Amino acid sequence: MKPRELKTLKDVHMMRVDENRPFYSATHEEILAGHTTDIYFVRTRELLEHFQLGTTEVAAEIFANRPGILAGVKEALNLVRGRKVEVFSLEEGQAFAKKEVIMTLRGAYDDFGIYETALLGILASSSGWATAAGQVKEAAGPLPVYCFGARHLHPAVAPVMERAAIVGGATGCSCILGAKLLNRSPVGTVPHAVFIIVGDTLRVAEAYHEIMPADAPRVILVDTFKDEAEETLRVARALGRDLFGIRLDTPSERGGVTPGLVQEIRARLDQEGFQEVKILVSGGITPEKVEILAAAGAAAFGVGSYISRAPAIDMTMDLKEVDKKKIAKRGRIPGLRENSRLQRIL
Nearest 5°: phi and psi at 318? Predict the structure, then answer.
């Protein structure tokens, strides 16, 4: 049954949640019905209804507490789509400055006020992830960066994060739904588990080459059992020119992926004529590590927790006009601030 939109405290009191629901994440319908909002917005709705002011025309602006890259605009727009609300915004993927107005909304307060919590949350989280991805990509320059962060988040929001990472500059992502949301193909190789079960890196590499589609790059993980350089050469000799690259994901217990390790493997590959084989590195990758490892010979980066654990960028929404009259709370200047970069999107 479609959830009822929350308009009064009685609606909240009467709201029932299925105790047997398999996941605690909100459904799309629950978000649109206001079930994830802060309770004080329902109180606000009831008070304004008491004063018969719910349809008062207002204008609001949204700004961030620090610089970043904007993401989440499409989801934010879908919160108010179908209502008589005008929305002006920066484009997804654009950089913004601290306190810069990134979005304005104009319409009856009752048509979008209930969504303030969800609206700010969408923009805050998505922009935080996009900004972190942008930082890694800036460090990588022309080298590809792939987001592998889905395992660090609740599955309900993992696709949102990976989509935001691509908006921020990541070349691709491993989460299937995250990639599909941008009409892309998910990227990735195979985990250590298959090597551990099979028992030999070369056997897995040969089987991978045999049964995987021709358009799947042959990138083989080489740090499961033996010395990474030794395994790299075993695989390279067996697959020859069909080997696109090797992946290093050496655990922290062994010192992680170091510049020295990358340099050694790059040199050994070159000495045996495998100059075209790429070195992909993953595991605890940060912008600082990207610069060092790229200089050592790494050609691509898989980044997980640096993006997925990125702090949200706090967003604030202020009412700046009521019935076309400029107004603001203490400390803020009345009236919408001008930003020529905003474009009307609704």
Answer: -115, 135
Burial of 185 (0-12, 13-18, 19+ CB in 10 A): exposed
For residues 132 and 294, give the distance between their C-alpha atoms in angstroms, rounded to a whole number.
Answer: 18
18-48 pLDDT tens trace: 889 999 999 999 999 999 999 999 999 999 9
9-127+311-344 classified as CATH 3.40.50.1240: no
Cα 214 off chain centre by: 29
d(CA 115, CA 299): 43
Q: Which two tokens stand for residue 269?
A: 């590959």
Pairing of strands 300-303, 145-147: parallel
How far apart (Å, rounded) are the C-alpha atoms in residues 242 and 1?
Answer: 53
pTM exceeding the 0.70 threshold for the entire prediction: yes
Give the fold, CATH level 3, of 132-308. TIM Barrel (3.20.20)
Q: Which residue is it, tokens 């460090």?
A: 139
In sequence order, the 6+-apart residues with CB closer than 8 A to the CB of 260 are 296
- Which amino acid makes up residue 107? G
Phi, psi of 176 (to 5 degrees): -60, -50
Domain boundaries, the chain: 9-127+311-344, 132-308
Q: Which of 147, 130, 160, 175 is nearest to 25 (CA)?
A: 160
**What sign does the dihedral 192-194-195-201 (CA atoms) show?**
negative
The SS3 call for residue 102 is strand
**Each residue's pLDDT tens digit, 49-103:** 999 999 999 999 999 999 999 999 999 999 999 999 999 999 999 999 999 999 9
Dist CA 59 CA 323 (whole Å): 9
Alpha-carbon gap, residue 297 to 125, rounded angstroms: 33
How many residues appear in the chain?
A: 346
Q: What is the CA radius of gyration of the chain?
A: 25
Burial of 137 (0-12, 13-18, 19+ CB in 10 A): buried
